[in-house]
Amino acid sequence: MAPGTLADDVLRGDVRAASRLMRRIDDAEPRATEELRALFPRTGRAYVIGITGPPGSGKSTIVDRLVAALRKEGKTVGVIAVDPTSSFTGGAILGDRIRMQGHATDSGVFIRSLATRGNLGGLSRATGDCIRVMDAMGRDVVLVETVGVGQDEIDVAQMAHTTVVVLVPGMGDDVQAIKAGILEVADIFAVNKADLDGADRVVRELRSMLEVRRAASGSPHGPARSHSLAGVRPAAAPDSQWEPPIIKLSAEKDEGVDKLLALIDSHREFLDRSGERKARERARAAMQFITLLRERLMRTALEKLEREKGRLDDVAGRIAERTADPYQLAEEIAGELGG
Hints:
Elements: H1 5-11, H2 15-26, H3 31-39, E1 47-52, H4 59-72, E2 77-83, H5 95-99, E3 109-115, H6 127-136, E4 141-145, H7 154-159, E5 162-167, H8 173-182, E6 188-191, H9 199-217, E7 246-248, H10 257-274, H11 276-309, H12 312-320, H13 326-338
Parallel strand pairs: 1-4, 1-5, 2-3, 2-4, 5-6, 6-7
Helix pairs in contact: 1-2, 1-3, 2-3, 2-6
């Protein structure tokens, strides 16, 4: 198949073509790059929503309910579920697809699971490119659900226009550690399973931590992000600020999801009004470019290492036996690449 042929089918909205290209992307096949280059000029229209938080917080249920709500609005939806890598196959476990089977026959919904392949950032290497594929095939909204690995969830904020951080009551000290790492990430806090005891305590703890952060910032007006409760849009916020709300909901009972979607729409309006959306897209472009450059440089460095010093396994063996100096080898290879 000539380069660009698969891309042409993707641009026509062909789901099978998109699936084939995403498989090539996830497998890091070189031929996927030409197809992505052909698609790139036709991207940039989809709105990307990140859903992140600790395992067991109900992220998949929230995504499922958001998909249903978006479809009622007539919007086409793509879902990228970044699953823990299977220890047996190296592939995605696909638990999210199982939970979202209700959308399987809807041509306006396209769900793709990706394996993290050990990526501690919670997002696989392929996520950014798969977002572009869904964008190019005409999806209005792309939902990205992450594994939820604590402070590394900053990755999803760099991929998404709006980031929803999901928390639940009853997670004990683990929540404190997670929350400490996501204050800078959340555009919206969603306290799920609000019918359980402890939901109000989670809200209070979040508020308390944010107050501490506000005091530490030394600003009389607080940080750029202060929080409101129960899905109420912050009043009279300056165009240069967004005050992320804290909303309680019960996704399993489909309670509060409509308010969550309304808040996402409000944040989207803010981004467009303030110009912040363009700033976020520039930041995402920079991150993805650096990732591509790093991978390319790493591949070139390993090829050069193999040509001049032997296979990586052999070199590693010599380093372990203290017959080779890893610092010197790294300096030599890097110096020659920088040339």
